[in-house]
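Can anyone check this?
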Amino acid sequence: MSMLYYREQVEHEDAAQKMQSHVFRSLSPFYGFLNNAISSYKQREIIADWKRVPDIFVKLEPLHKVYLLKNACTVKPAFEAHWYLVKELSEDIEWEEPLKVMMDDGAKHEIKLKKEDLIERGGEKYVKIPLEGRIKKLVWGFEKPKVTAAWIEVDAVESIVQNGLEFKFCVQGSDLVVEGDVDPGKMVQVNGLSIPVIVNASSLDIDGFKYVEVKPKVVIKENEKRWRLFACEGTLPNGVIGEEIPDFWKNYPSEIGRFLLGEGKISLEEGKSLKFRVSKPDILASGKIIESELGFRFRVKAGGRAENRADEYWIQLIEAKGGDEEGFMAQSPLDYFFDEDVSVVLETKNSARGKFKLEIDRRYRNFEEKKIVLRNKDDQGRFFLPREGERLQVKVNTHNLRMQQQAIRALERQPLPAHNSLLKLLMPYKANLWPDFEPDSSIQEWFVLTQGDRKGTDEQRLFVEKAMATPDFAILEGPPGSGKTTAILELILQLTLQGKKILFCGSTHVAIDNVLERLQEKKLLARVLPIRIGPLGRIQDNVQEFQLEKQAKANPNISEALLLEASNLVCGTTIGILQHPFFKQRPEEEPAKARYDYLIIDECSKTTFQEYLVPAIFAKKWILVGDIKQLSPFTEREVIVSNLKELSFIEYNKSGKRKEVRLAPELQKACFIYQKLFPFHQRLILPLNIKIIAQLILEIKARDAEDGAELSDKIFGIITQKNATAHPDSNFRYWDTKSIKEKGAIELSACDVILVEDKAYAELSALFPVNFAVVGDANWGTSAHAFRFNCWDNFKDDYYYKDRGQSLKGGWEVTRHYNQYFKEKSWAEEIAWRLIRRYELRSKGDKKTARKYYKLIQKLKPRTMNIEEALFRIESFSLPSFLEGLQAGLPDRKRNDQKFASTLTLGLGESELACRHVKLTWQHRMHPDISGLPRELFYEGKALRDSPLVEQDREWAYSRYEKRREWLHITEQDHKLKGNRNEAEASALARELQHFLDFAQENPNPNHPEGIWEVAVLAFYRGQEKLLRSKLIQVLKYKESYAGGRFDCRQSLNIYVKLNTVDKFQGQEADLVFLSMVQNKRIGFLDSPNRLNVAITRARYQLLIIGNQDFFAGKTGKRDYDADDLIALAIKTQRMKGGTNESSI
């Protein structure tokens, strides 16, 4: 059946068969890789502790009304009654002639004017005519001037207009108090009459009036003026111009402040609903008046009752003790509780409780704070609350991996003509496989890229033109802040103008929501009809209206399927898009129809090929956006480990017959033991399975060429239960149980290492020489042999171990270390983390650290079979992004390697890439002090160039730092590390944040529409992230239970703080970035150039690095690393003056 689909791809049947064979051979390993990952995840259980969120809601009724006080001024007519504006009056006035006046009522008057009755002001002439009533016509000698009243009674004013803008006003005595700014140099239309006015600044008399000033100020910008807020119990004082804000407390809940209650300070839990939780409802009886610390008064409206029954069942998840704080890019284990369709199991010691089938109510999930409400499936779905001491457990949801498998199978078995370019990726590479083309130069109008003279716009436009013209792929490479999102936005608009349908994906929710937000800002929604796929709680508030479920509720007569069909822009993260109904509900037996003309993937440098395939099979052309100089995809180490455990490869016999060979667990164990104990200078006895012993013997012999010099004088004793028939040689001696019992164990003393079959070990343990320690027997420490060994060891100094900073002496310490190592680790785990580290250092070439990891991997690889290609396959499936493979090819692959010469592994050819690729070279984000170093370190000076206006755009009044990139030095003696937590750095960071808070409240951000400052607090380790969260809660006065990473203090402190690890912050930015380095003894994974690039390119105005600068500069002693980038950062960054370690916060 599959062949029919391939016949649609090529003309001839033999070509179709070859294509099918190549595709199957290329994709089958991917499928197997995912199979192993799924099997591993199915066995993995995530355990979480929990605590009950205080359960009773109190709802408040505000007694204060809040008003917006507008800029106001007093206005009065410039002329008193009876003054008129006259026009068409000559300069030669006959003062002796009387002025003849005709009134509206027909009355006629003659008046003789004096020179002081005629004045000039602002180039106009005004005359005083002391007559009551309206004047119809004037005659002065031979002239007939036109006349208009230049005054009006204040009480008769109905409208005030200037420059087409009508002002609100009220009467205060003889003045008009006008809301806004009136220009005294221009005429004002009062009741339609143009008159000059006198303008004075308003003086608001509110002394003696009971009110609360809203502080810190909420600043609202309109016409570049600042407005103030005013709160009072009642109406505004007479003459005070303001407009009541009825929903103020819902929109600005953080203005309320905390409440001083019987159980301490309590902040609002759900500010938008004016609700908070208390654990002692009796202290807040209904009707009670309470006051916040800022002076606002409220009446308790619903004290002691839960407004919604679910509110009583909220719990907050807590990572189980022993969780991973070493992690830098791994997600929190708690994130798995928020996957779709997960089942929760109750872990309890009470057998009477049984096993409950629980589920998380989708309506009550708070991902940011890790809070959930449970339901009991076995009890009609009723709300469920665990008991104290019980824990929650979920199995990892493998839906995303199964979707990747489905995509592979669809491409492998049912490829449609639209998938031809995807198939070509897997075919043998050859010239002209990818046709050249010219950019589309027919674009008539640019919608976003309108500034043609702006640096970088020409590059952005070229990308759009190439993307519009490509028959298959287009690539936009751009360093941080180079305008990738703007280019994507322009491309979307150009494509929708042509009636194209677009699927837009990204690795983060922020990347997706930024584009939707820009569409809103630019008022471009008339052209684009977006639908957002993903859970509501993960989507930014201001774009939640586009979420599919919300759209369906807003349009109850339109099905979700129809909404998706009507939309020309469907968006979601590469994981979230899996909830797309078309993807989720497609039967596996049906081919994947390419419903979308284009797939655009932002942050594609973090997307693997198999992840990319899921949305890719539903599109006809593919646009890849990212930066391979930043972080690569995150694949959990466990996935790599599971595939290494099941490592297999293909061998061909002499007749060419294909056979799959699996790397036996016994061989893995043998290599694991060899690399740890080499060069075998400790006298050890190892009880092992006979198969492991056999493999270890073969490995030792196979390594003679490379390790023979160090092993030449080593003697390995081999003891089996029976039939020791092998002939001894220079390195091996063989015995069986019977011969040892009959002849004694004296000959064993000549050995360096004894490998004993586990079945024989128990029988012979009392006979082993006293100068040998045993590794691999958990009970050896209490045995008679161990006692004798200990007595001998106390007088000797034969046992020592030194590696990776550890220095151990004595047989007990050394054997304890070996036993713990062999118990906790495995061959697959030791290979996995070294593969990851070597890949992270791939751009370092042959540097010391990269070379070290290569040697360690070589030491772990077997010599009795060649697994080089199998290892490469696992590495290429899990570590590189599809973008990197297409753009630069995978590491260790050369174009003349014909056996694996496909575009997927080798990348596009030079000319093929040139017509599909655009690199943005100008940056518009960072102050030049910040961008200069990463431009030099990571982009060879060819990209991340500063646009001419970026320095001007980043001017600010904050003078605490001399340079925009500075280092706050924390000495090694200040605090010792606790795991990956650095208390000294966290406290110093908190103090620096407090300094900036003082500035931010009085100095709005000129480049933000609401004047808000955005601050990022970043760390390389999750342990430090947790410590920093506790500091931020104190400084920002957040509730102690908060477990999220977003501190929204926009209204109370004029600041928005984001807390995250560096790896999770890729694709985001902030005005001020605090970066905690944590380490002061070892470098760890901080030497990754891609990670460091992300860390130091997030800031717009200021980057402050906090850590031991001397350590990273290599000044604190022996340097055992070659992290040139880190050293350059430490040496070339100015040390902050006056940055001292004061008392902890």
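Reply from J.R.: I decoded it. The first helix runs from residue 2 to 7.
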